[in-house]
């Protein structure tokens, strides 16, 4: 119970229930609403507070410990509940509150996943966490798929879908009570994971500021920025309410998260495979594989994107939404499933790379917080590109360039 991997497993289960269900809902496009406006503006508010709280999340975690996960997890319940109110203002406020909770949760998660395991197990720890986390999103995606399969012309999900998500998220919040303090976690060789006493604000402020002078962190900023940027295009454009039928969107969503599990399972073990060479060699292999896959997928997306525009799929424009029974759906769903696979590979590479830089729990939390800060600052920009109705092709080219540049610099 006090082993690093079991603690990573518990964190995975918490994220299975909370961010996993959030991802399942987000992946439907517009969080299941007929319009993406409320979800997009809420997403911007979330990204802004997530950015700030990711930066201060490491100090909060290092000072107060893992108990910050309890209120952090409950913020997910509030967010999903906001869609039952039919108030856009409440949804936007709930998004901002969720940003605070998510900042604290993901910083703690990064600290635990990157620092608890031994050097030889860091890739496997990512695989374990990411597979469990995305199993939550996969099973969560099955809820709207089952509910919406016979939806006819509906573009919104049912109230029962939201309630099911809220119940699962509340259970996840309670699971945080099962985590042990870092000082009680012991590796296989008998070494304690952390012998730190709880930190203080002054020390944490100094250490966080040092990150902005660390050349390793600075050169990785484009890589971090691209790690969630593609969600906006994938969820709100490609899988948004206009292009495809709700039934197709729900099935796409399920396969997206399922392929996350496959990608994480393969790539995490690959990065730990010492037979492939030194860590530096494996880093180069991992980088190359990620770059080749993501470039291929974005080229495919450009070809698909040439077939529709924002104006063409707007309500009342006469666009016939693509359904699962249409012949062109096969290629579209394969592309979308592989979007899920590359997300796991891309983020797995980042976490593994950061994990190779430290075994210290406090420093790992700061690295994770810095990563999430950049990730969400960029996500806020991506959200606003969609909110300002920037052409779909322009959004696609922007994220394509950011991903490629980030991987080349890393």
UniProtKB/TrEMBL annotation:
Pfam families (alphabetical): UNC-93
CC per GO annotation: membrane
SUPFAM superfamilies for the chain: MFS general substrate transporter (SSF103473)
Presence of keyword Membrane: yes
Membrane protein topology class: Multi-pass membrane protein
Coiled coil: none
Matches recorded under InterPro entries: Ion_channel_UNC-93, MFS_trans_sf, UNC-93-like_regulator
TM spans (from-to): 42-61, 68-84, 90-116, 128-147, 159-180, 217-234, 254-271, 283-304, 336-354, 390-409
UniProt keyword list: Membrane, Transmembrane, Transmembrane helix
Localization of this protein: Membrane
Stated name of the protein: Major facilitator superfamily (MFS) profile domain-containing protein
């Amino acid at each position: 119970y006090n082993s690093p991997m079991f603690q990573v497993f518990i964190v995975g289960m918490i994220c299975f229930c909370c961010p996993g269900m959030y991802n399942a809902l987000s992946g439907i496009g517009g969080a299941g609403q007929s319009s993406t406006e409320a979800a997009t503006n809420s997403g911007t508010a979330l990204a802004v507070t997530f950015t700030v709280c990711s930066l201060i999340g490491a100090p909060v975690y290092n000072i107060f410990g893992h108990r910050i996960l309890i209120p952090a997890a409950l913020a997910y319940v509030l967010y999903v509940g906001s869609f039952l109110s039919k108030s856009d203002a409440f949804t936007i406020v709930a998004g901002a509150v969720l940003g605070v909770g998510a900042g604290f949760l993901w910083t703690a998660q990064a600290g635990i996943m990157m620092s608890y395991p031994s050097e030889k197990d860091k890739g496997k720890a990512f695989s374990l966490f990411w597979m469990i986390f995305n199993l939550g999103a996969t099973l969560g995606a099955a809820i709207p798929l089952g509910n919406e399969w016979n939806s006819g012309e509906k573009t919104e999900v049912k109230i029962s879908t939201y309630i099911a998500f809220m119940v699962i998220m509340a259970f996840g919040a309670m699971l945080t009570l099962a985590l042990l303090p870092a000082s009680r976690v012991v590796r296989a060789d008998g070494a304690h994971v952390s012998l730190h006493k709880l930190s203080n604000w002054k020390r944490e402020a100094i250490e966080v500021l040092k990150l902005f002078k660390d050349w390793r962190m600075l050169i990785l900023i484009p890589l971090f920025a691209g790690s969630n940027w593609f969600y906006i295009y994938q969820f709100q454009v490609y899988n948004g309410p206009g292009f495809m039928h709700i039934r197709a969107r729900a099935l796409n969503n399920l396969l997206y998260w399922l392929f996350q599990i496959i990608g994480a399972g393969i790539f995490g073990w690959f990065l730990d495979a010492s037979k492939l060479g030194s860590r530096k060699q494996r880093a180069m292999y991992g980088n190359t594989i990620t770059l080749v896959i993501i470039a291929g997928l974005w080229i495919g997306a450009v070809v698909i994107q040439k077939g529709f525009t924002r104006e063409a799929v707007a309500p009342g424009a006469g666009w016939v939404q693509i359904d699962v029974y249409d012949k062109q759906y096969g290629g579209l769903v394969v592309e979308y499933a592989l979007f899920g696979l590359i997300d796991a590979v891309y983020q797995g590479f980042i976490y593994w790379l950061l994990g190779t830089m430290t075994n210290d729990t406090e420093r790992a939390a700061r690295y994770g917080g810095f990563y999430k800060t950049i990730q969400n600052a960029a996500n806020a920009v991506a959200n606003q590109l969609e909110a300002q109705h920037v052409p779909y092709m322009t959004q696609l080219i922007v994220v394509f360039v950011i991903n490629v540049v980030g991987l080349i610099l890393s």
